[in-house]
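If your schedule permits, I should be very grateful for your opinion on a structural question. What I wish to show you is a protein chain and, alongside it, a tokenised description of its three-dimensional fold. Would you kindly read the sequence against the tokens and tell me how you understand this chain to fold? Here, with my thanks, is the record as I have it:

===
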Amino acid sequence: MARSGQQSGQQSGQQSTEGAGHTPSGRRPSPRRDRPILSDAAVGSAAEDRGAQDRGAQDGAGQGGKRERSIELLGSRIREVRSSRGMSLRALAQSVDCSASMISQIESGRVNPSVSTLYAITTALDISTDSLFSPAPAAPAGAGGHEPGARDRSTPRPAARLGTAGDPEPDPQPAAAGSAAREELSIVLRRADRRAIDLERGVRWELLTPNTDSAVEFMEVTYAVGGGSAESDHAIVHNGREYCVILAGTLAVQIGFESYVLDAGDSMAFPSTMPHRFWNAGEAPVRAVWFDLDRWPL
């Protein structure tokens, strides 16, 4: 009877333990973790977010590659001009007031020059700034690289001309279409075809003229957050006159001994012979259209 009572007590205790959430082995089971059930819309939204992140990473890598190529092209162009002038690295560095090592790194594409350094280099080499941009795209053969008779969708359709019988004349022949495409390349610059230079301190220049023009420098300039054209103790001075309009952001300007702050829609004009420098004074990139006139005296 004692043994029977002991077994009964053990069974009762075991049942009590199991009822308290323990397994027969005495270990507490792992808590249940139910995963939330996502709707189809939520799953689709999450997939789109991941896709957007992947595309953003790819775009960033593509932009980085373009910037690296623009730096290499800039450096090779400087080296080419310097060599054609018969000027040594040391001589150019002395004219620019920097080390020969710095010039060598710029020419090899390992270092971005600052705006002030690039202006000093172009002055020492007696070349215009826009001549350092990558070459303009060559005019396509035939009808702008399209199949014979095909119309370039980027070219506006010419207005119909009335013939003697009052009917519209037929479209130009393929040769005429190719001529029109080549003419557009000398007049119109599409945004995707802009040539750009990325400089030190977060400054980017995008040339707005379809071809090199030594008489003017017409560019869209971007200043990254915290970016600027020169150090606080190093202003820029060169020939010509500058005109600028701010498209977005807040640009701080120092011209001579005066300082100004320009917001979107503000503009300015001043002689480039006055010491000047610019920097981003806001929390968003600055975009501005810049026009330098008569930098190179005739």
Observations:
- The first strand starts at residue 196 and ends at 199.
